[in-house]
Amino acid sequence: MTDGLGKLKLFTAGDIIEAHLLQAFLRSQGVDAVIKNESLQTGLGELPFVESWPEVWLIQARDWDKAHQLLAGFISGETIGEWSCPVCGERNPDTFELCWVCAKVPTDEAYEFRA
Ligand SMILES: [Zn+2]
Question: Model pTM?
Fold first, then answer.
């Protein structure tokens, strides 16, 4: 009925940053994912095609239902808050345990100070 590999495309992102955010978010929730068409984004201008949007694919079929629930939350922007990476300054959703850019763990100082 299916080869089992053609059904795991979770999401087509609008740009590579969105794809990386989603991938990092999924990984932070225990769902492993890969990004396809990532390298094509570097050659803008050379590519006449618009079919090269980055795509987020699941690795494990068993993650499908969970990933879709996470995706729904990701798209609707249901993030609780965000923290700024102490190393590169990138802003990360609270749900990220690591900086999605440099993979550093946030320190306490990265969070908003609560008096
Ligand atoms: Zn960082």
Answer: 0.57
DSSP symbol at 83: E
CA–centroid distance, 40 to ligand 1, in Å, is: 24
Q: Is 11 helix (H, G, I), strand (E, B) or coil?
A: strand
Distance 82 CA to ligand 1 centre (A): 13
63 and 35 in a common domain:
yes
Is 106 a residue whose pLDDT tops 80? no
Please state the domain count of the chain: 2
**In terms of residue numbers, what domain contains 15?**
1-78
Ligand 1 center to residue 106 CA distance, Å? 8
Strands 55-58 and 9-12: antiparallel
9: left (phi over 0), alpha (psi -120 to 50) or beta: beta
